[in-house]
Amino acid sequence: MNKNVFRNLSYGVYVVSTLDGERNTGCVANSIMQITSSPATIAVSMNHDNYTNSCIQASKRFAVSILSEASSPSLIGQFGFQSGKDTDKFEGIAYSVKEELPVLDDCCGYIICKVIDKMETSTHTVFLGEVLEGDNIGSTPAMTYAYYHNVVKGKSPKNAPTYIAEDDLSAKDISSKEADPAKEESSSRWVCGICGYVYEGGTPFEELPDTYTCPVCRQSKDKFVKK
Ligand code: FE
Q1: Are 142 and 209 found together in one domain?
Q2: Which CATH number does the domain housing residue 191 bear?
Q3: Terminal CA-CA length for the chain
Q4: For residue 194, how far is its CA from the centre of ligand 1 (angstroms)?
Q5: What separation in Å is there between the alpha carbon of 134 and the centre of ligand 1?
Q6: Are residues 123 and 208 in the same domain?
């Protein structure tokens, strides 16, 4: 099987939130699709290891904040590259409450669901949610998964349903992702060891500035390795 074929499927980038008792929590998801229109239902695939999964199992409801192309990439770091088990994911995050669930301000739409069914796979739970409420916010286009990879230069956490290990990428696919070879030779590439973000700025930094932080996961420069 050529796993790269899955890259031709289309996805978005979402923050799925729920309640952990009284506490707000959530995580990033990219595998969400509408299943039926009347009544409106959507499906969400979420790794068993995501703390949000167990919280949705308990609360039986979730909210989807649809990230836009203008949404801050730091949201993906905050919600996607740390665990809600020991972190307050909503610390410093602007949000409003819809149907008792937190919805991010920095998104282009939201959907509120109650869980009406689920299917367990060996690694992921697929939650089927009946839509209770939803609306668009602003007019900025939704961030597609392709936009996240190609423009934001973000990577997938290992828990993502669409995660592909580098070892599974063919040489052709890897080379097609590389930037201009001339540019490669003249400048250093710094890769975030936490989220995989690649700094490809015009300045050929021998060292990143001390104040540099990853725009995706907000880790400091010491988490970057030179490639
Ligand atoms: Fe990072």
Answers
A1: no
A2: 2.20.28.10
A3: 30
A4: 5
A5: 31
A6: no
Contact assessment for residue 81 and residue 157, using Cβ atoms and an 8 Å cutoff: yes
Residue 1 CA to ligand 1 center (angstroms) comes to 30
**pLDDT for the residue 177:** 42
CB burial string 100-114: b at 16+ within 10 A, e below: ebbbbebbbbbbbbe
Determine, yes or no, domain membership for 4.
no
Residue ranges of the chain whose pLDDT lies below 50: 170-186
Q: List the domain range (segments joined by +) for residue 199.
A: 186-227
- Out of 129, 152, 175, a domain closes at 152
Those residues whose C-beta lies under 8 Å from the C-beta of residue 60, and which sit 6 or more positions away, are 114, 115
The partner residues of 118 in beta bridges, in order of sequence, read 127
The DSSP line for 1-70 is: --GGGGGGS--B-EEEEEEETTEEEEEEE--EEEEEETTEEEEEEEETT-HHHHHHHHH-EEEEEE-BTT
Residues with CB under 5 A from ligand 1 (ion): 192, 194-195, 197, 214, 216-217
pLDDT per residue as tens digits for the range 195-215: 778 887 656 566 788 888 888
Length of the chain: 227
Query: Both 66 and 108 in a single domain?
Result: yes
211: its two tokens: 């104040």
pLDDT, position 184: 44
Residue 132 lies in a domain: yes
The pTM (predicted TM-score) of the whole model is 0.82
Distance 216 CA to ligand 1 centre (A): 5
Q: Computed over its alpha carbons, how large is the radius of gyration of the chain? A: 18
